[in-house]
Specification:
Number of strands: 7
Shape: elongated
Order of helices and strands: HHHHHHHHEHHHEEEHEHHHHEE
Strand content: 5-15%
Helix content: 40-55%
Number of helices: 16
Low-confidence stretches: 1-8, 361-365
Structural class: alpha/beta
Mean pLDDT: 87
Largest sheet: 5 strands, mixed
Number of domains: 3
Amino acid sequence: MISTRNQYTPDYVSPPGETLEEALDERGMTQVDFAQRIGMSRKHLKQMLDGTAPITPETALKFERVLGIPARFWNNREQQYRDFLARQAEGLELGKYKAWLKNFKNLPVMRRLRWLPKTQQPVDTLRSILDFFGVASTEVWQAHWGAVQVRYRRSQAHEPDAFALAAWLRRGELEAQKIDCAPYEEARFRTVLEKVRKLTQEPPSEFQPQLVQLCAGCGVAVVFVPELPKTASGATRWLSPSKALIQLSLKYKTDDHLWFTFFHEVGHILLHPKKDIFIETSAGDSDAEKEADRFAARILIPEADFAAFTSHSTFTKAAIQQFARQQGIAPGIVVGRLQHENRLRWNDRCNDLKRKYEWRIEQSEKKAS
């Protein structure tokens, strides 16, 4: 894989003509004599010496014959100089967009998460943002992510920061690129969901890799990405017709929320059009969000079983734990369902049955624990 890590970018690169003049001086050769030897006018040679005319590969071969300096040397010097000029011009152009940087209020968080490198100059920061998003300019950024925002399907109860959300979604894309997925198969995906449901009883060190592997085998990339302020707890979209993406954060930090969000996103994949992007920012009020909510609730705790449990139970810790064991799910999920339906208070003594998750640094990456 090509890497640009630790790539050195000099502040100044001299025109290759300066090196050419030094070579002529060392050989005691005048510019007039050299021009005659390579079959070039004095005027054209002068333009190459001052950098206004490029040294072409054909000319580099002539230099090699006359001076004995390999053509690849001149080609490399020319390329380095033109790259420098292009970056210099780009820097001047990007300097016009410093105000655009103010839209990214989460730059310190993105650097702390190592999504962006630490930079000193605004122009370098702007370059790093464009590199992160994989776009050539701010105009292209707006054209692409503006179009993506039009496709968002989210509750209007909480409007996210569009720039922070774009960064969070982009990080999900980058993480999903690392996951080798089989082509999407709906029937196979539905089959593995029962195995995934049983993973709710496991700690993150166990369920995280298994969840990713099981879903990847069905064409669904599952990624865990730390949330940025004013972003989302989950998202669903299709990266291609054969690869779906479920992106999860730990916005609410408990197992009931994490697993409900996961199965809610599964509902979007199975029930709704591939062209839509679903962003979970708060309780959804659209038909699609309500449908995904019902799907998640049913798959985690079947309606008949839940009705039977709630018809006679006093919801003690022991009763909740026994019911969770019978269902093969984590007890925190049962507590969350009871709280959501106002059968338990949110500060009830059973609240400690929920597992709390947090992000920790491991091998230079954030992981759930």
